[in-house]
Amino acid sequence: AKCIISEWRPVNLREGDFHNSKIFFKDGETVELKWDNEGFFIPYGKQGPKLSVPKGYEYRPGRDDGVYAAIGQETQSLKVNLAPEGYDIALFPGSVNTACSPLEGGGNILHPARKGEPAYFVYRMPSPFVAVDAEIEATLIKDGEADVCALSLSLDRGKTWKRLYTKEKQGREKIRLNIGRLAREGGRPSVYSHYEFLVRAEFTAAGNVLGAGMSDFAITAYRQCNKRTLPNLRPGKNVLRVSGEMKKGAIITMNVKYSVSGEPRQKKCLISSLPFYFEINVEPAEEKALDNYDQAFNVGPLRMQAIEFSAAPAGGTGDASLSAGEAEKEFLKPFPHPADMTAPRPVEYPEDDPMESSGFFPQRRTVSKDRRAMEELIGIMKSEKDDIKRWKAAEDLGCHPDSIDFLLEIWPAADGDLKLHLCKALAQIGSPKAVEPLLKTWAEVPKGAPGTRYIPDVLAVIGDRRVVPDLVKPLRRLRFDYRFHIVHALGILGGEEAEKALKDVAENDPFPAVRRYAGERPCPVFR
To answer: How far is CA 213 from CA 82, 148, 153, 175, 251, in A?
Structure first.
């Protein structure tokens, strides 16, 4: 079943969407989203083989300050079904020559269907959240010396495989392999910092096909997530929606766990079709409005704990959904947050032009031929030590088309922050001279962040469609903010290759906002 848990909207929160991405459920798989991270995170900065953990990241149970005000956890577990009639449901493409049979003395074994030929059992572990740690538990069987029994890992959808373990001794063996932080530290294949990975069990039986295989197999991945993107309940009536796609006959078990004044509560649902609407009524609880939610989160008397999902046995009966019509009406009601975090102040220069606030470059239209003003700005760029003054001067040079040669001269050596302001100026000028220097820097992204994020904006303004292959090439390896700007540029540049890439992003990108933007076709360049 493919379940997209999006548009999770407590009635009491106007902006209560659960901006999660696609969560895929296989037979035997469970996913738990937790507000309390148990120490599975990726610390900032360049890390050596042994991770250096800053003090703000140190784990203690229930921590809700510092970075733990934001970091939640996903625990994803797959326990392979060993029933002969359903073992193959969870197998990923690339699995061949597979079979499952009873063992003497009880239990079942996954094994080759034909002797003398390799059998591959491939399992995919995808998630919208990045992996920090993972482990494999298996009972492997190898009866003959010529039999093959091994496990491998792929981080690129099966294009290449790295050997994790090869069973040398004959007999039955229970193993436990770390493929996360400890593996990374030891220089072994690791899933650390990856969103998706494949694990392959490989067997070749020289004689009896039951002589090489496994009698149990489980994978557990621990991932970090932003718990602020998870749904939060409010006192009173909460109406929620789970949407996505489900196979006919499938059942998903969902359990929402929370507490009120320390007393545990839960809401369990059996879902057999999507969208599914349900209600949680929370007893009164005094909500304390915080001054700064960056430093503390989920700390009041009403606290979220976890949401558990699992694939239930097919053929069961799901719970009745609330009426879609009535539930959707609830989402239109305003319910302000209890904390007033606004700080209204007069705006000296109101931004009333859409190009000023679109989030993309260019952001103004001014064109100046004042040579003296331009030279003064160039002087600031050359001599000023204050970064902010240099950033402002760089932006203001965008009003002077004749400054293009100077801007391109300083571009290569500019740091990531200055590059952002240079991109704003280059987009305002829109000169084809910038294409080659920009593409040279683009070949190394995400190096140069945050400034290099805006290179697609500049190329879109210039309008040379020949840059499309360069923009598309790194799409799958860049984080969501880069992908957002690439999508914007592709929508402006157009053409067959751009349209093909946009269609793929609209269907498969792991981030909902990027998928939606790719499907909407971005706005034209402001000039």
So the answer is: 12, 9, 17, 13, 30
